[in-house]
Amino acid sequence: LAPLLADLRRDTGVELVMDYRGTMAATAELNRGFDLAWLSTSRFLRLRDAEPQLTTSIMLSPLVLGVKAGQAAKLGPQPTWADIADHAAAGELRDGMADPHVSGTGMAALIGVATAAAGTGAALRPEDVRCDRIQGFLAGRAFDAPDVTEEYVRREHEVGGLVAPESAILALNASGRLREPLEVVYPRDGIVLADYPLMLVKPDKRAVYDRVVQWLRTPSAQRAIMDR
Description:
The structure is a single chain. The chain is of the alpha+beta class and 228 residues long. 43% of the residues lie in helices and 14% in strands.
C-alpha cells in the first residue's frame, strides 16, 4: 500500500498511519484507539453487532485457490470446496493458508468448506458443521505464516498451492518470483468476496474519512489499486 498512501497524502494532505494485522485479530481490537479501519471484510464485525455505521467498499477480490498445473489436473474442472477438502485429507494437496484465528481469508476458507460439506444450500448453522471435513481440509495446510504469499515463494518446491485472494495470486504470478505460475481455481459452489471496506471508527474523524473515501474511489485511484 505504500505507493498508494503516498499518493493519497500528496493529493489530500491526509496521512494514513497503518497498523497491519489480520482481519480476525483486528475485528477483536477495533475500538483500541483506531480512527479508521480498512479490513478485507466487515462481516465478522456484523456477527458481533459491532460494525461501524459508516462503511464504504473500496475494492473487490474473491477468495480462491491458486495451484500448480499438475495439482489443478488432479482436482479436475471446477472442484467444490468439499472436493478440495477431500484431496487435502487424502494427502494429495498441500497448500498454504492464513491462520483462521487471525485472518479473515483463513476463516472464509473454513466457512466455504463447512458450507459445501453441509450441502443445505442455505446459510450455515452450527448443527450443519461437519468437523471431519474441516479437519480434512486443514490436514493439507503446510503453513500458516502471517504473509502466506512470501512464505509460498520460500517453500514453492514443497507446496502445491495457496489459499488467498485472487488479487494476491495474480500479483504473485506477475512478480516473476515463481518457478511455476499458479492456476486460479474458483470453487464451483461459491466464493467469498473480500470487499475491503473503509470504516469510520471515531465519528469525530468524519471529515478526514470523507476525503479519503472520495479519493480512493476516483477512477485514477481505482486504476492504481487494480494495477498494483
